[in-house]
Amino acid sequence: MKGRMLKKGDLILIGIVVAAAVAFIAPGYWSGEESEKNHIENRVVHIEVDGKAYKTLPLTEEERLFTIRTDKGFNQVKIHDGGVEMLDADCPDKLCLGFGFVTRPGQQIVCLPHRVSVFIGVESGEELEVDDVVG
User: Fold this and answer.
1) What pTM, to 2 d.p., does this model score?
2) Which residues contact 99 (CB under 8 A, 6 or more apart)?
3) For the domain with range 41-122, which CATH number is right: 3.30.870.10, 2.60.320.10, 2.40.50.180, 1.10.287.3510?
């Protein structure tokens, strides 16, 4: 059996698919998302315990370790490279360690057993866009 040659219509379809793929990928590549990640001077890390403000720390490139100690246990937080992550906790399920490294405003890490919430925000006076409210 001979190999099938591509017809003119096949080539046009392949061209359209490639052009559409480039149209969707290129804006994300050149949109400056990397620039946004590195633009951290107005971002802070908010820490809440039992729904109340506990501490607000600047989001920095330099490494900074911070331990949150409550009567329910401890959580160790590491701020570095323009983001924050939960390094250690003595909660039984350790789900808070699975949130990973967060870098964008609105992202958060939550430890339910200790009632600790760590999230990235902006300095007071600026507001974040709210996606949804649960009450």
Assistant:
1) 0.62
2) 85, 86, 108, 109, 110
3) 2.60.320.10
